[in-house]
Design a protein that fits this description.
The structure holds 2 protein chains of 2 kinds.
Chain A (H helix, E strand, L loop, with lengths): L1 E4 L2 H7 L4 E4 L7 H11 L19 E5 L2 E2 L11 H4 L5 E5 L5
Parallel strand pairs in A: 1-5
Antiparallel strand pairs in A: 1-2, 3-4, 3-5
Chain B lengths: L2 E8 L2 E8 L6 E6 L4 E7 L7 E7 L3 E7 L7 E2 L12 E3 L5 E3 L4 E7 L7 E6 L2 E5 L7 E2 L20 E7 L7 E6 L2 E5 L7 E2 L20 E6 L7 E5 L3 E4 L7 E2 L9 E6 L7 E5 L15 E4 L7 E3 L17 E3 L7 E4 L5 E4 L7 E4 L5 E9 L1
Antiparallel strand pairs in B: 1-2, 1-30, 2-3, 4-5, 5-6, 6-7, 8-9, 10-11, 11-12, 12-13, 14-15, 15-16, 16-17, 18-19, 19-20, 20-21, 22-23, 23-24, 24-25, 26-27, 27-28, 28-29
The chains are: A alpha+beta, B mainly beta.
């Protein structure tokens, strides 16, 4: 099971807690994680990435294992710790404002 | 027993206020969608318990919410707003071409007869329609592909369709207002559009009388007299008596004719309300005084309404969708400010009460009169 941590606004929108668990078939990548997230919680369609281009929204960041993967290829494998469920995949609203 | 439900959209959530017909004691529910910008909440005239809300965020994009029980519970509807066909460019602030991009829904206008049918005015300027209660949206692309559209440029708030007015006497006729392109009218239910800005003058354009390019802030109609529309433009308050074929200025004795809101008394089609704002560079009320101005003559002759409103040290703005009227007698008038206050007059504007003082900045106010 992949663990995904959602920002508060998306927790409320999807009606879930801070962490959601997803079954993701290999290869586990940003794209397949987000595909599984949107399939399980359709209310999140368009909120993390563009519905058509599938590009990450500009003020969303992806962190895991204390690293920033936001600008990695969406098709690159995520770390083994995420794939094994040992570490979560974090979806973060970027810092903005004061 | 009749009453009113007031739907307030703010920069950090939505609030629902209810009262009986006395409009003196209020129950406040919210914030709904806390932390999100709620550009607009509006109910269906055909089913008052059906509400739609535009929920938007710079982080998370556009969400469309629907309620079937008058705002007690909500469900996310469809948020797939795609422009039809190949999109070209419009003009950017510096005059350069800029690609059309969907950003958010500014205004929702439910059909007068069908609770599942809603029009949505979007930024970048486009009009969408749903016929299934918000699950799917289709662009009425005749507006965005109008011949003049490549010349449209954004106002300070963006290039947006912020006003949609449906003609209750003609199901095929509708109007939209775009900042900063102007008014457009359709006589075929939104398929094709033509500019309707004759008589407007704007010194922000090289040709002050151009057919397109005016920064119209708001238009309003009384349902019993759909050929008459009132307009608050960037500068100037205007009126048409011929379905927007031509406009004339009615600013008269207003202290300033800059502003955002305009609305019409539900019982008196020639009683009009505006809230003058100092200028385009000073987006707050003049002289530190919050004054609603009322004309009982359809314009030109205006009186200041001040009882119950702050008359010193007040520097708030009232945005374009943040005023509405109810259908009771006497007519109730409602508005919300950038400072988070919601004011109500239960006597057509003669006196005002502050219902809420400390909300986030108010983006929109809509009123439902409940039977």
């Amino acid at each position: 099971m992949i663990q995904v941590v959602l920002p508060r606004n998306l927790q409320l929108l999807a009606g879930v807690g801070r962490v959601v668990e997803l079954e993701v078939d290999a290869p586990v990548t940003q794209r397949t994680i987000l595909d599984a997230l949107e399939a399980k919680y359709p209310a999140l369609l368009g909120t993390v990435r563009d519905r058509v281009t599938k590009q990450r929204r500009p003020m969303i960041r992806f962190f895991a294992c204390a690293e920033d993967f936001s600008n990695e290829s969406p098709d690159a494998p995520v770390p083994e710790e995420v794939t094994s469920g040992k570490e979560p995949f974090l979806i973060i609203g970027a810092i903005a404002g004061g | 027993m009749s009453g009113v439900r007031v739907l307030v959209g703010t920069r950090k959530g939505a609030f629902v206020l209810t009262s009986d017909a006395s409009r003196k004691s209020w129950k406040v529910e919210g914030p709904h969608f806390a932390g999100w910008e709620i550009y607009h909440v509006k109910g269906s005239p055909a089913d008052p318990n059906r509400l739609y809300a535009s929920q938007t965020s710079g982080w998370f994009g556009q969400v469309l919410q629907r309620s079937n029980d008058g705002g007690k519970t909500w469900e996310a509807a469809g948020n797939d707003f795609q422009y039809q066909g190949t999109t070209g460019t419009h003009q950017w602030y510096d005059g350069s071409p800029h690609p059309w991009e969907f950003k958010r829904v500014w205004h929702l206008e439910p059909s007068l007869t069908d609770p599942d049918k809603v029009y949505a005015g979007a930024e970048d300027a486009a009009l969408f329609e749903t016929n299934d209660g918000g699950q799917t949206w289709t662009e009425l692309s005749g507006l965005r592909t109008h011949d003049s559209a490549p010349t449209w440029a954004p106002g300070a708030g963006g290039l947006c369709v912020h006003t949609i007015v449906l003609d209750p006497a003609d199901a095929n006729r509708m109007y939209v207002a775009i900042s900063a392109a102007g008014v457009f009218r359709s006589d075929d239910a939104g398929k094709t559009w033509r500019p309707a800005n004759k008589g407007l003058r704007s010194n922000t354009m090289p040709d002050q009388d151009a057919e397109v390019g005016h920064c119209v802030h708001r238009i309003a109609m009384h349902p019993s007299r759909p050929n008459v529309l009132f307009m608050q433009k960037h500068w100037d308050v205007m009126r048409t008596d011929d379905c927007a074929d031509s406009w004339r200025e009615i600013s008269g004795n207003l202290p300033t004719d800059f502003g955002f809101v305009v609305d019409v008394n539900s019982n008196e089609p020639d009683t009009v309300y505006v809230i003058p704002i100092t200028s385009d560079s000073h987006h707050f009320v003049p002289d530190g005084k919050l004054r609603v101005y009322r004309s009982k003559t359809g314009g030109d002759d205006w009186e200041a309404l001040t009882k119950g409103l702050p008359q010193k040290d007040c520097y708030v703005n009232v945005l374009r969708d943040a005023m509405d009227v109810d259908a009771l007698d006497p007519c109730g008038v409602y508005f919300g400010t950038s400072g988070g206050q919601v004011y109500v007059s239960a006597d057509g504007g003669d006196t005002w009460d502050s219902v809420l003082r400390d909300l986030p900045g108010v983006l929109s106010v809509e009123v439902q009169t409940l039977k």
